[in-house]
Amino acid sequence: MKDIHDIEITINGERRAVTVESRRTLADVLRHDLGLTGTHLGCEHGVCGACTVLVDGLPARSCLMFGVQADGREVETVEGLGTPENLNTLQQAFMTEHGLQCGFCTPGFLMLLTALLRENPNPSDDEIRDVVASNICRCTGYAGILRAARLAADSDAIAT
Ligand code: FES
Ligand code: FES
User: Collapsing DSSP states into helix, strand and coil, what is residue 141?
Assistant: First the structure.
């Protein structure tokens, strides 16, 4: 018999009800049950950070959380940042500074840096490096990502 739960998660400001199996990861709940495929899965065991979302404002690897653990909590995903027509400051900075190539890792970096810039709107380059080091990008060598974070931090409108 399947062990299932009815849960409610506030996702990008919207309350969503969903029925999940206990074993379902938050990443799979977001992608498969709620259709939010912007959150990507790389390693699926907590190493790469591609699946990073914000849970109650803090970065979390959604492949390491069960969906049921998000019951009653606030989750933010890349879909809650800008839109293709209206990128937010951080997304625009990634585009301007070529902070991506394949883009697979990008949602995780965006969420990670969103949390950093909210907490510390004017981080030093070393502080940015320290945070970015938790996620893996196989394409860029990180220089563009670091420049993008710097540009966003130096912009008037901080990513929200
Ligand atoms: S997919 Fe979650 S850390 Fe790699
Ligand atoms: S842009 Fe390809 S993995 Fe980062």
Answer: coil
Most informative mutation of 48, 91, 106 for ligand 2 (most atoms within 8 A of CB): 106
* Residue 109 alpha carbon, nearest atom of ligand 2: 4
Give me the domain span that covers residue 41: 4-78
> Does ligand 1 lie within 6 Å of residue 46's CB atom?
yes
Give the pLDDT confidence of 48-103 residue by residue, as tens digits.
Answer: 999 999 999 999 999 999 999 999 999 999 999 999 999 999 999 999 999 999 99
CA 143–ligand 2 middle distance (angstroms): 12
In a domain, 160, yes or no: no
**Are both 11 and 62 inside the same structural domain?**
yes
Please indicate, yes or no, whether residues 94 and 135 belong to a single structural domain of this protein.
yes
pLDDT more than 70, % of the chain: 96
Looking at the structure of the chain, the number of domains it has is: 2
* Nearest Cα residue to 120 out of 76, 152, 85: 152
Task: Please give the structure tokens belonging to residue 48.
Answer: 């790469």
**Which residues lie with the beta carbon below 6 Å from any ligand 2 atom?**
100-105, 137-140
The CA–CA distances, whole Å, from 113 to 7, 131, 152 equal: 28, 8, 9
